[in-house]
Amino acid sequence: MSNPVFSNSPIFRDPAQQRPGRDSSVRGAGPFGGANPFGGGGTATLGAQGAQAADARTLDAMYEAPTATTRDTGRMTYDDVLVKTGGLLAVLVAAAAVSWLSGSVLLWLGGAVVGLVLGLVNAFKREPSPALISIYAVAQGLFLGGISSLFNAQWQGIVVQAVLATFCVFAASLFLFSSGRVRVTPKFQKVLLVGLVGYLLFAVVNVVLSLTGVGNLRTGALGLVVGLIAVVLGAMSLIVDFDSIQRGVRKGVPAKYSWSAAFGLLVTLIWLYLELLRLIAILRGDD
């Protein structure tokens, strides 16, 4: 796993990575919870006149009724995840527009701090909080609006390019996953993990060098290579996210966890957008 929203949740975690004794809170119980639907004293209740009590028309109606869907049983569906992800993106875009138009540095810096804190809180919460997730979307929108405005002031049109590139990577990742061309295997996850750890170490070193005045490694040819690697890692992370969501739907997890799934996708998309924004800036140079 790469996204902590999914890897820290027993709801979405790969069964091979489940921790004995700690991940047994959600089980695939049937609609009757494993109990006898007619009650423990079914034989005594029906007695000798059981045939009369079990009305034939009632039984016929039960057999002829349509099969209950995941929505009918309160389980998470792909539609749930799609709707909530779209809603969070709409909230994020609205907040970004406010930050962009205001031009307030304090607004987007505050959004960055609040977004970081709420991102960690939501990622490690066992139960999803729609309110906290929505506030996270607002905070990140304020941050993205401010930083996007700065980039656009230097490279006109770069924000539109980065947004389109983000959705193109998202669509390509979804196609590769849904078509079965790319599968989330243990080897795939190990490669992603190594890549993410290496990228994190590079980012830490770059921050230290930048703060000490030595220089910024995210420029020039090296910055271009790192940017391309980051985009590939982002695409791989999306594929792992899709796999986690698919596992949750197949397990029949409660519908409330669609908020967790939407939050996980939002986190990856934000990171991917920022990496593409930097990558396009390097490619455009001083034009």
UniProtKB/TrEMBL annotation:
It comes from the Bacteria. Keywords: Membrane, Transmembrane, Transmembrane helix. The chain crosses the membrane at residues 81-100, 106-124, 131-152, 158-179, 191-214, 220-240, 261-283. InterPro entries: BaxI_1-like. Residues 1-10 have a biased composition (Polar residues). The keyword Transmembrane applies. Residues 1-34 are annotated as: Disordered. PANTHER family: CONSERVED TRANSMEMBRANE PROTEIN-RELATED. This is Uncharacterized membrane protein, YccA/Bax inhibitor family. It comes from Cellulomonas marina. The lineage of its organism: Bacteria, Bacillati, Actinomycetota, Actinomycetes, Micrococcales.
